[in-house]
Amino acid sequence: MDTTREDFVGKVPLSLAPCPPAQLAALGGERSPGLLGLACIGIGASAALPRIADLPLQHVAAPLLGGTGALYGEAWRSRSTCIAGEGQGIRFRADANVLYGVVEVVEDSFAAAAGASPLQRATEDAYRRIFRLLDAEGFPELWRVWNYLPAINAESPEYGGLERYRQFNVGRQDAFLGAGRLTGGAVPAACALGVAGGPLSIAFLAGRLPAQPLENPRQISAWNYPADYGPRAPTFARATLAQLPGQELLFVSGTASIVGHRTVHAGDVAGQARESLANIAAVLAEANKASGARYTLDTLDYRVYVRRAGDFDAVRAALLPLIDERAAVVYVQADICRADLLVEVEASASRATGRA
Ligand code: 3EB
C-alpha cells in the first residue's frame, strides 16, 4: 500500500507537508491548533505570504524552478495543540516534544567590531538568542537548522577577503562555544544557502531530547574540515535522527558533491547531482544501521538547490533515475556555500516506530 505524506498528517506527532497557496491564505490561529510553523519559498510573491501574528514563518527569498508557481509553502504540523510564544525576539510554536522557531536578523544593524564583520556578529547574536530561547523553554536540543543569507559567496576586502559563508561559520561556531555547546559530534543537521537579498534568516526545530547525529563515511565531518575552507569549521552533522512517541524523523543536511573534504565534478552539474545523491545514499545506510529502519532514496522528501537556473533541466534529468518519480522534490535557485558547487540536495523522512 502506498503511503502519501498526507496520510501522516494528524496521525503521527509531527508531519511536514506542502501547503498550497489557497491553504496558505486560509491559515488562521484557531483553525490550525496543531500548526507549528511554515516555510515559504519564492520571490515576487510576498503579498501572498500569510501574516499571522504568532506564527513562525521562514520566507526563503529564492526563485522556484520548474514551474511550481510563485510561492511554495510547507507546513510543520503537530497532532496536538501547539502553544505560541516569543522570546529573545524569536517567534516560536511548540507542542509537548518539539519547538519550531524563526529568527531574522538585519546585519546592517550590527557594526563591525574587533575584526568581526557585521554578518559574523549578526550570526553569533542570532544563534546566542536561539540557545537562550531553547534553554529557557526547555527544548535545549537542536535537531535541524535552515540558514539563508544574502551574497553567501561574496568576499569582503575589509575582512581579509573572507567569504561571507566563512564569516557566518565564525559567528555560528562562536555562539556554540559561548553557550557551552559542542561544536562537533552532537551538532544539528543543517543547510546554509545564499539568497538574493533580505535578512539573515534562520529556522530551527528543537526537541526536549537529543537527536542522534550521523556522519557520512564518504566525507570528512564538516565540523572537522581543514582550514582551507575557512578559519572555523561549519557546525553541522550530515544528518540527525530524532525520536518522538511512536515516530522517528530523519533530517538529511544539505548534501553536495564533496568527497573527503574536496569538491568533485567541478563544472559538471549532472555529475555533482549524482554525487550528492551518492552521498545521501551513504548517509541513509548509516541511518539504517543506527535505527534498524529501511530508508531508501525513494522514501525521502527533497529540496534541491541549483545555483544556475539554466541547469534545472540537467539536474532534474540526473536525479530522476535515482529517486522515484513520486518522490516530492522542490527545486530552488540558490547559491551554494562553495563557489565551485553547483547543486545541493537536502532531504527528510519520517516513519512510525511503535515505540512510545
Ligand atoms: C558541505 O557539505 C556543503 O554550513 O550549515 C551543507 C549543509 C553545507 C550545511 C552549513 C553547509 C552547511 O560542506 C555545504
Automatic annotation (TrEMBL):
SUPFAM superfamilies linked: YjgF-like
Lineage: Bacteria, Pseudomonadati, Pseudomonadota, Betaproteobacteria, Rhodocyclales
One Pfam family linked to the record: FkbO_Hyg5-like_N
Domain annotation Chorismatase FkbO/Hyg5-like N-terminal: ranges: 74-206
Species assigned in the record: Azospira restricta
Classification via Gene3D superfamilies: RutC-like (3.30.1330.40)
Alphabetical list of InterPro entries matching this protein: FkbO_Hyg5-like_N (IPR049368), RutC-like_sf (IPR035959), YjgF/YER057c/UK114 (IPR006175)
Protein name listed in UniProt: Chorismatase FkbO/Hyg5-like N-terminal domain-containing protein
